Amino acid sequence: MDHSQSSGNDLDGVNQVHNQRIVVPASLISPADDYGKKENYSWFATSQIPTDLSIQLQDVTFQVHKFPLVSRCGYIAQVEMQNSNSNLEKCLKLDNFPGGSETFEIILKFCYGLPLVLNPINVAALRCASEFLQMTEEFEDGNLISKTEAFLTFVVLSSWKDSVTVLKSCETLSPWAENVQIVRRCCDSIAWKVYKESSKPGEIIDEESWWFDDVTTLRIDHFMRIMTAIKAKLLKPEIIGSCIMQYAGKWLSDTDTEAEGCRRYSYSKNEVQINILSSKRQEVSLGHSKEQRMIVESLITILPAQEEVVPCKFLLWMLKVALAHSASPALISDLEKRVGMVLENADVNDLLLPSYTIGDQGKTLNTPDECTMHNIDVVQRIMQYSLMHEQQQHHPLAGKFNLGKLLDGYLAEIARDPNLSITKFQVLAEALPETTRTCDDGLYRAIDLYLKTHPSLSEHDRQRLCEVMDCEKLSLDACMHAARNDRLPLRTIVQGRVQAS
After folding, report:
1. Deepest of 42, 43, 278, 284, by most Cβ within 10 A of its Cβ?
2. How would you label 291-323 residue by residue, b for 16+ Cβ within 10 Å and e otherwise?
3. Contacts 24+ apart (CB under 8 A), 470-478
4. pTM for the full model?
5. Quick check: 345 and 312 in contact, CB under 8 A?
6. How far apart are CA 324 and CA 65, in angstroms?
């Protein structure tokens, strides 16, 4: 480094950046004596021969000699030939140059004959940039394309760590990294290493999760490529499901705090307090929501088809995220069917899927039914899918009675919603056949909570609501409670007294 024009306090590092020169040995390149940074945004090469080319890249201007670049870069040679006077324009602007000015600086030094240092951090950008500049063997033996290709093939792809590092560096190099097959080769290499190690006999899932931490740091499209390649190699679906769960936990937000358009509720005696997020916040989080939607939709598409490869709790959480970010209706339906297949393992709290006003759809809620706290329609469809799945089995599910308890517990939770119509409550209560309930105590509790929350119901409506319950299936304690419950219609009270006696 030559800092002869710097002030005496350059050693403090403040002014060195303004006048930084790189001495180029005459034996390496004759046109340039040194090459460096003259000002904050200007790079130059000086020699006895004046520079004859100015290259503008982003906010940096490179003052260089034409010959070293033309002799290695087909792109610049082609631009020169297109000029009628066979002279390259004094100023050339490079738009959308992969890797930016830092990568171009390394290429300039390579063209001037300085040593090239390749590593997993810069090789992808240099490979893409060399493709942009057409640095093929036609112009120079051992040109940059061949050097970067050799490094990728023999160094990067043979190493797990380097393959992951290069793949992460490709996230800012689209579409060039795809076009020169860096992404595909790295994904295939990673997938093969996962399959090779995970297929060793005697290993269990916990031991096979050694690769989760690295793979789940990747961008969703690259993660998808790897998981698709792994699935094609028939790796155990339980392992794929575990990795998807870890990725979702790392990249998907908590819908209760970050999903835009979510309506917040809190109980206050018999009233419900609703807080609509401000439109300003919805606008700020719109981009985040689109990213979240892309991630959750991608993860749904690669979930293994086998039952119980992921817990029902996780599927319901994914469904909540998908609803919050307005995912594709077809993918939401797919999730609902998956939940229905394992619904007997669900928990009531996991079924409490909030209703959302979707910010990017601008949906307006007009009726009380649309303002319910929880998305009851989704749960009703899940119940129907569960029944359909049971009917398709040669041996009915052993946990079918759990569905009755689950539904009654869910009804008790949503009964406290003042906007829940009696029709919705009744239809959902009758969603399961009577054979799924051996006792109607849970259903009675839900009905009582609904009547308590809706004290203005007419006698007719109260009677209509109680018709979904079979008093003969009530326990003695429930019958005694019903006999003294003045919220019930008279006919039900009489039946309760008869049963209690």
Report:
1. 43
2. ebbebbbbbbebbbeeeebbebebbbbbbbbbb
3. 470/434, 470/440, 471/440, 471/495, 471/496, 471/499, 472/499, 473/437, 473/438, 473/439, 473/440, 474/439, 474/440, 474/441, 474/444, 474/499, 475/439, 475/441, 476/500, 477/441, 478/440, 478/441, 478/444
4. 0.80
5. yes
6. 57
